[in-house]
């Protein structure tokens, strides 16, 4: 093949797209997870592993590139594309597709890069941490019944592990940890949540049923929010911070797609994602609203009985946050976030006269965003009381809130990465005293 011909060979689209996402992540400080939500390119989702591996080993990879002199020797090689190709070649699939010039160049430096990287410098954080966490797959009952889901899995030769109801939570966790790679089981708290061995993480991320939204890849803790809010079919719900729409979709499942869900999102881009997600997930009862939830009135959303408040938070509980900018605890940022969280929850408690129940959730493990927000809002709104999340789960639960917050801690719920095989989530459920008294 002539050199000219080799030079005209294009870099595979998937590498170019991944490099574009990486560039945005490095420049914008947005987490990769956020950027991936907006990325429709199917093959890119398969490259998620490369991006995670890069961020887990950023220091070592950048240093190896520097030491190998690859960029100095090849000034036309794009530095970001180089990072992607090096990660894929040394830490990812260990091979590169095609014969484009950048691919050939990186291949030619393989030994030098591998030596500079050194096995001892390679972290496999994502696998170390996440491999213990199973793959959670929730059935989107708007599009697929539970029976159909099990039939489909049988047709793919998955083995369903059957259990008599678990006596306690520890037995359940043990069973999850003992799952084989070709097995799955049903969660003990959420009936439409299926649990697979961690090795199937990428399989389900790339599966057609996930793309078609028959299956939602939703971690255990976030599934508990809709379950605990538990709006009956036909009720009226307000989701105050709705995008990308995972909990709205789950709530629509809980309501058997009957009733009304007002789903509010302030950010225009995320609002579009919300509209697309809920539509493709078969939600017939969602009325999306692009607005600041703090301005939403009972006239705009009449008859609201159930409210979900899932505001922006530090995200400190997320195991799979793929941001290289995963911050240390930042008191000033937490103070600002807590201020907005309190405003949001207070608005839910005061602006909707028919409200019966409110779920407040964060993916944070910090008390400032959790117990303290709950405490402040209860002080300001005496017409609500907390329900015990643990009791709602028939006491088959372990992690509650900090009991130093009297009458608060024990009623709130945490899923903790260290002991629940799930991301860190906080949930508090409030019930209107007025409505309870009226009944
Ligand atoms: C944690 S995310 C919600 C995730 C969502 N509940 C789900 O399960 O898919 C918080 C969302 O609230 C939105 N948000 C923040 N402040 C808001 C406000 N004042 N009004 C409406 N939406 C807001 C953010 O843009 C973000 O999309």
TrEMBL record:
Family to which the UniProt record says this protein belongs: Belongs to the class I-like SAM-binding methyltransferase superfamily. RsmB/NOP family.
Sequence positions that bind S-adenosyl-L-methionine: 265, 292, 310
Positions annotated as active site in the UniProt record: 363 (nucleophile)
Keywords for this protein: Methyltransferase, RNA-binding, S-adenosyl-L-methionine, Transferase
Entry GO terms, CC: nucleolus
Protein name, UniProt field: Probable 28S rRNA (Cytosine-C(5))-methyltransferase
Source organism of the structure: Musca domestica (House fly)
PANTHER family xref list: 28S RRNA (CYTOSINE-C(5))-METHYLTRANSFERASE (PTHR22807:SF4), NOP2 YEAST -RELATED NOL1/NOP2/FMU SUN DOMAIN-CONTAINING (PTHR22807)
Keyword ATP-binding: no
Primary gene name: 101901617
Domain SAM-dependent MTase RsmB/NOP-type as annotated: residue spans: 125-433
GO BP terms in the entry: rRNA base methylation
A molecular function (GO) term: RNA binding
């Amino acid at each position: 093949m002539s050199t000219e011909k080799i030079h005209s060979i294009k870099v595979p689209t998937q590498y170019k797209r991944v490099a574009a996402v990486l560039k945005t992540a490095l420049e914008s400080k947005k987490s990769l997870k956020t950027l991936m939500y907006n990325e429709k390119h199917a093959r890119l989702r398969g490259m998620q592993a490369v991006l995670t591996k890069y961020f887990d080993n950023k220091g070592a990879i950048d240093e190896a590139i520097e030491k190998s002199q690859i960029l100095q020797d090849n000034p036309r090689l794009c530095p970001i594309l180089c990072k992607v190709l090096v990660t894929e070649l040394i830490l990812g699939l260990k091979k590169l597709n095609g014969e484009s010039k950048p691919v050939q160049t990186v291949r030619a430096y393989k030994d030098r890069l591998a030596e500079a990287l050194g096995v001892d410098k390679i972290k496999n954080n994502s696998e170390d941490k996440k491999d213990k966490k199973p793959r959670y797959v929730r059935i989107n009952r708007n599009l697929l019944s539970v029976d159909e889901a099990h039939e489909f899995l049988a047709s793919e030769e998955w083995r369903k592990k059957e259990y008599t109801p678990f006596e306690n939570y520890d037995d359940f966790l043990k069973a999850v940890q003992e799952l084989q790679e070709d097995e799955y089981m049903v969660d003990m708290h959420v009936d439409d949540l299926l649990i697979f061995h961690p090795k199937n993480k990428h399989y389900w991320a790339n599966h057609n049923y996930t793309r078609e939204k028959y299956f939602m890849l939703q971690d255990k803790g976030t599934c508990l929010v809709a379950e605990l809010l538990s709006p009956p079919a036909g009720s009226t719900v307000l989701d105050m911070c709705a995008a990308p729409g995972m909990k709205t979709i789950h709530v629509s499942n809980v309501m058997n797609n009957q009733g009304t869900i007002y789903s509010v999102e302030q950010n225009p881009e995320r609002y579009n994602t919300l509209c697309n997600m809920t539509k493709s997930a078969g939600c017939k009862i969602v009325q999306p609203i692009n607005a600041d939830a703090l301005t939403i009135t009972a006239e705009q959303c009449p008859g609201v009985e159930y409210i979900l408040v899932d505001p922006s938070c530090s995200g400190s509980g997320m195991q799979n946050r793929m941001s290289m900018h995963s911050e240390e605890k930042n008191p000033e940022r937490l103070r600002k976030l807590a201020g907005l969280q309190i405003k949001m929850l207070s608005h839910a408690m005061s602006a909707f006269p028919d409200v019966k129940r409110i779920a407040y959730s964060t993916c944070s493990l910090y008390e400032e965003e959790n117990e303290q927000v709950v405490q402040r809002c209860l002080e300001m709104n005496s017409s609500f009381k907390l329900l015990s999340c643990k009791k709602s789960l028939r006491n088959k639960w372990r992690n509650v809130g900090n009991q130093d917050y009297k009458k608060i801690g024990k009623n709130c719920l945490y899923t903790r990465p260290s002991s629940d095989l799930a991301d860190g989530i906080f949930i508090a459920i409030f019930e209107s005293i007025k409505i309870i008294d009226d009944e």
